[in-house]
Amino acid sequence: MTPAGSSAGMLIGTGIGQGVAHGPVARMAPPPAAPVAEKSTLAPEKERERAAEAVSAVAADLAARGEKAGGEAQEVLEAQVMMAQDPSLAEAVEAKTAEGSRAEWAVHSAFEEFAEMLKGLGGYLGERAADLNDVSQRVVAHLRGLPAPGVPDPGRPFVLVARDLAPADTALLDLDKVLALVTVEGGPTSHTAILARGAGITAVVGARGAETLAEGQDIIVDAASSHVIADPTAEQRAEVQRRIEQRAAVQSAPVTPGALADGTAVPLLANLGSPEGAENAVQLGAEGVGLFRTEFLFLSSDRAPSVDEQAKAYTQLLEAFPGKKVVVRVLDAGADKPLPFLTNDEEENPALGLRGIRALLAKQEVLEDQLTALAQAEAATEADVWVMAPMVSTVEEAEQFTELALAHGLKTAGVMVEVPSSALLAEPILQRTGFASIGTNDLTQYAMAADRLLGSVASLQDPWHPAVLRLIREVGAAGRSASKPVGVCGEAAADPLLAVVLVGLGVNTLSMAPAALAEVRYELSQHTADSARAAAEAALGTTSAAAARAAVREALTQ
Questions:
Q1: What dihedral do alpha carbons 534, 536, 542, 547 form, nearest 10°?
Q2: Is 139 in the same domain as 164?
Q3: Which of 250, 269, 292 is the last residue of a domain?
Q4: If you write DSSP's letter for every residue of 310-340 in order, what string do you get?
Q5: Residues with catalytic annotation?
Q6: Cα separation of 140 and 146, whole Å?
Q7: Quick one: which of 64, 66, 45 has its CA closest to 56?
Q8: How far apart are CA 141 and CA 149, in angstroms?
Q9: Is residue 34 part of a domain?
Q10: What pTM was estimated for this model as a whole?
Q11: CA 228, CA 10: separation in Å to the nearest integer?
């Protein structure tokens, strides 16, 4: 069978990671039938109680799944819990039960109306509509006494094919059974992609035509090339097996410090979303932490946590990295992470609104509490704490944050470079602060004017694009000029070939999901500093992401 819209059985999407897998398709079961509008025989108050109990049960289940998964998965699921418990949704459900509707219909219709409103807003909030629909389906299933929608279990290893996958399911996929993941929808930084990358799941998202893949059909999922191949030949299957064995050898190789073939050190650090992921990162060879996201402390609350609460959590993480660098990003709220005590949820375009350092400087007491807690945690441990501000766009923001951090007893402060203005102003910024860390996910989004969560513009969300690479070159050059370190903590660092290019552009350290460390470490060890610079120049001389990849492959094989 050749899927519609494919070429010789090939589908094209966005690959997550560098893995490859081969196996039979198992399709995600469709969601349960939507409730119909019908009057209840129970009192409105009873139906309201049924709805509230079901929402509470689903929220508790999602929170438990998040706690079990930890890391980025916990952040995503806690955000979903907040959506489920949104007071405006509860009011809408109550209003519908007051009209005599059954709880099932009240929940379904209220959540659907809210999801349509989010879709209309577009961007980050538009992408959250899928998360809200998942919550709605789980609540309705609970009301009906049915199991929640979930991953199939055909009794053998399989490639999971779905229109999209709910965060609650992605977070707890059984990797002994799920060989790979293919979705019809979603972009490279959708929640599905983020969680798949963090767990090391081979995945291709946004693969148009994947809905035509049949149950049990033999397919190859090649994340490295972003292809899905239906009904592969014997030769193709043999090549996949060779690559799987090669990746296994790389993954099991002895852990060594990150370095180029000529001995040039390139420390490889971990991106972490909670203290629970620290032990695994250390085992996989992380030489420290290049991005510790602190949002996990804030997302499940309607108030900012106290200094003591924060200091306890930070101390737990720092204790896992004695004598090593831990780069902590202060709270990055706004856009897809609105917080009632910090951000304005009525902004029409929150990705361009009061987010990151802008929100923190507008309510400075939240920032100062966090800096105080970080200083206390550093004093209680042997870790080397570096603190950085998200979404810095002006020299004044960099200067103000650095002064505040130093005044609170933190000796190393820096900024994230995530918007073109901070890349272009990197030299004066680095003259006023201690270091820069490039967030390639947002830098690509803003450079290409392509929302990072929209599958419809996924082809533009590519850090290989020469426009993005030129911005990174500006930061690297500014770092050399100011003798200040420059790192990358965006997903670009997890691409082994692109990691070589980043080093050639002047990046000193690379931070990534721990699952990517082994392959990046291996790729760097195959090239010298001179060849990395030559690869970077080759990429900069092109005009598209695809051409940049091709030019680098050619440059590194000469």
A1: 100
A2: no
A3: 250
A4: HHHHHHHHHTTSTTSEEEEEPP--BTTB--T
A5: 191, 489
A6: 9
A7: 64
A8: 8
A9: no
A10: 0.76
A11: 6
